[in-house]
Amino acid sequence: MEPQTVRMEKVINCFKKNPEAVARLICFPWAGGGSIHYARWGNVLNSSIEVFAITLPGRESRAKEPFFQSMQQIVDEIIGVLLPLLKEKPFALFGHSFGAFTSFAVADSLKKLHNIEPVHIFLSGASAPYSETRINTPKRSELSDDDFLKWMISIGGTPPELLANPEVLKLFLPALKADLHVVEHYRCNKPDSAFLTCPVTCFDGRDDIPHDLQAWKDITSGDFTVRMLDGLHFYLKDSGNERIILDYITKHLETIEMDYL
């Protein structure tokens, strides 16, 4: 077994360690994504929030590790690493697309197995995993590379220089397909009753394909909010939208600070 500190450094990318922070924001990557986009947020958000960006196997510093095959493997690793930290102070979860499913699966497991829940969940660019919209989504991970690339171009957000470079694509496509394989085989039932009490906020791009955001309401008895922002699937990469999201997160996590004083 690896020492816990080594496992933490492998799984958590934290640009700005901040032991004095009142709350932590734990961010889960989109399909094929790394941790850098979110780790940057640690330099932008104010000092009361520490950002942990999750790094999954098969990318960045973990490029030589085999991809996970199931959501359960992802959840087990993340909870195995994070559990001691989650007991220290309030935490919130943020996930976009595939990361929204990971956030949900981690929150579900934390509540059922450890009776711990976040103070807020921020979900972006995804239908709830048990919704009809999600269940009927075509399986993209089984497409040929050519058809897969056509689909990627259609949803936007992939830098054109990446799409034009076959060598880079060869490195990038396996991680994306592996994550989509996980999400396409992830099954969960609609909750019989809300298992969380924390607020849930859904963000989405107005010009993305429609997602069943309302179905996420079933997971919580707390406040439920939907915020639509301009753009396609990767609307959150736009600097103006990113500012809106980070301001919103800051405002909501700062109110936590008041509750805990």
From TrEMBL:
GO terms for molecular function: fatty acyl-[ACP] hydrolase activity. Its EC number is 3.1.2.14. It comes from the Eukaryota. Keywords: Fatty acid biosynthesis, Fatty acid metabolism, Hydrolase, Lipid biosynthesis, Lipid metabolism. It catalyses: (9Z)-octadecenoyl-[ACP] + H2O = (9Z)-octadecenoate + holo-[ACP] + H(+). GO terms for biological process: medium-chain fatty acid biosynthetic process. Residues 24-246 form the Thioesterase domain. It is an enzyme of class 3 (hydrolase). The keyword Lipid metabolism applies. The keyword S-adenosyl-L-methionine does not apply. PANTHER family: S-ACYL FATTY ACID SYNTHASE THIOESTERASE, MEDIUM CHAIN, THIOESTERASE. Belongs to the thioesterase family. This is S-acyl fatty acid synthase thioesterase, medium chain.
